[in-house]
Design a protein that fits this description.
single chain
Length: about 725
Amino acid sequence: MYVTKNEPFFHTAPLHLRWRRAFCMFLGLALPVIVQAAQPEEGAKSLQSWTLAPTTVSGAGDGYTAPTSESATRTDTPLVEVPQSVQVVTQSMLKEQGSRSLSDALVNVSGVRATKPQEALFAQPIVRGFPAEIYMNGLPAFGGTAASIDPTSLIGTERIEVLKGPTSALYGGGIGAPLGGLINVISKRPEAEPSAFLSMRAGSFGTVNPSMDLNTPIGDKVAARISADYQENDSWIDHINGHQWSIQPSIAFQLSPETELLLRGQYEDRNQLEFSGLPAAQALSGQIDRNTFPGASSGQPHTTIENRTTTAEFRHEVNDDTRLSVSAQYYEGKIRDNGGFIFPELLGANPATPTVYPIFKLYLPTSIRESTLDTNLGSRIEALGGSHELMVGASYDRTDFTSGVSNAELIGELDLANPSYGISYGATPQTIVSQTNRYETKAVYLQDQATYGRFHLLGSLRLTQLNLKQQEQGVDTSYHRVTPRLGITYDLTESLALYAAYSTGFRGAFNYNGQETPKPELSRNYEAGVKLAYQDLGLSGTLAMFEQTRRNVSTPDPDPAKAILGYSVQSGEQRARGIEADLVWEPTPALSLLGNYAYTQAQVTEDNTIPVGDVLARVPRHSGRLAARYRILDGAAKGLGFGAGITALSARELTLPNTVSVPGYALLDAQTSYDFDRYTISVSAVNLTGRKVFETYQYLGSPVVLPTQPRSAYLTLTASF
């Protein structure tokens, strides 16, 4: 990630002094808590008898296989019984692969194009070709971009569950429900056993990254946890630097043997000099310096992202078969986007000097406030000749979104082939256009999971009212939508099942500017496949075929006079078809093998300006990953572990309509570690072969690219108590 360094010492101190200072500060804050956490108290003995199990993380295990998921059905259900492709990135996978961000972790899931931290302001992650949303512990935090909820750090993450296909039957909030899929980041919970984890990571581009995860009982029937992470680093791109921090406190109360209250906080800041991308055609042809910073090298303010989330979860076991769950969340996000960028669509390079570009500045402030409440009651019953797990629930979400944009002001010129930096940013421009939106969602939902012998049936139904108010456009309207979800799984054997499913997506139009009242965006998904769960062989996974359609996509108004003013109509339709495979094989505790592959044909099927058949941006036709980890469990070399992976993608388009595509690539990563006593030394490397390739990049809809991170290595020291 590109992050900044505000503290003067960090600007001038050598790396070894910055590392020493950060580590000493870190230990000074953490050691008193570690000492307390490492000493069990009498309260710990009481806590160990807690009756409410943390079901959100059950089945995580110590390897790469997760046999259950709660995200798919809001109940703790074996994955082999869920009629949907659901993939889990376990904590072991995160740790052993050295994943530091969602984009690092999600390469392990087929058909997912994660948002890179650098483009989080302008893009959402993509699942099966369509926008997906990131949830934290089953609750949303707006869905316009990834910036509002993409976690700054994974230090407090237990695991990540990816639901493929739309999920409107059970989820919604902010601008609506995910159209392409849902990425649910599940946090660690306070536990009865005291523990402490300290880590210091350092490496390429001046990276300094201390982190900690402390868990301790507090008296009788109370446990607390705090996870924290700080990182500062430079970049392979000229002038880029920054910093980020995250702190995640939580406390759990066992109010009675049947009742638990969990309070969480997640407070994060990112501070980074914004990178706006390089003109794709010239970057791909080698005409410009791949490490050029196309902005103001003097005085450009850093872009800041501040996210504050506070959550309360209440669970009560009414009896052995019935459970009440209530979750409430308040989210506040503030983004101050200061961009220095090229804008060929407004003013391009002079043909006589084709690599000399005008540089513009732009200011885009955004503020978001969101309040969410979800409550459901689940019960297991025997009826109609089968067993049923019934759930009825209701949810409410109100999101207030305000944003502004300044003029794009010219501040100078820069030769991207031979940059001579010195452009001054000047004063922050004033906003001239504002946007004030309010989204209010009220919903009730019902679900039945029924088992009749070898058949597992799933039916969900949600009735949603979404009130949309766009102040500047004079829009004040309400949508009412019933979104069903149906699925069936048939057990061929105890370890092999077939499934088929149908699901729908529904969300409001985001910042739609047209002369008609905006319609909701809709999606539907058909899929069928095979589930594997061979416990004796250590083989698990999913093979799936799918077809997804997205309707009411905004396209430019066919009237040129209206289109030039930025008006749109909702006449577009897009479709994605494909096959996916996600497999994990762990024949012994010493070996974990992971493989995934996706063939995705995502294209425009109806539009009034974009040619039908154009490929959706950022979606490769072919993508996949192979990864392996071997652990030495006994003998003189006990504690050693080795891992490697290769991630490959085919070509991807940058924009609609298609103008420039980015060639595919294959990148190699590797990791090794050594565990001794309570300590671990690990080394990880990315782009091990030093490939000089490019990533697709989203910035104001321009055809720009990001140079892939060059060969980099990181050393991590950890201590566990």
